[in-house]
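Hello again, I could really use a second opinion on something today. My current little project is about how a certain protein chain folds up. You're getting the sequence in one-letter code plus the fold written as tokens. Here's the protein in full, and shout if anything looks odd to you:
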Amino acid sequence: MSEQTRNSRKTITGVVTSRVGDKSVKVTYAYKIPHPRYVKEISRKTVVHVHDENNECAIGDKVEIMETRPLSKMKRFRIVRILVKAPVIGA
């Protein structure tokens, strides 16, 4: 038997926009695409459901997420690390 190597998985940087339930968050990431005819860049955003194993993310945190196998009906990503913590309001 030969040793199998793991494929490289897509990583994305985004911002936590919602805490949906236990161990789940919504992350929004923005990107730009050129308009097909006018070539001007158009801003787009995508919201993905992400697995947060330790419930450590808060709304406003900048996080790095990675593709993974389907974890539930909607979740296809997991948190790799928190890049920037959101400031705590009222503290």
Remarks:
- The chain has one domain: 11-84.
- Residues 26 and 49 are 5 Å apart (CA to CA).
- The mean pLDDT is 92.
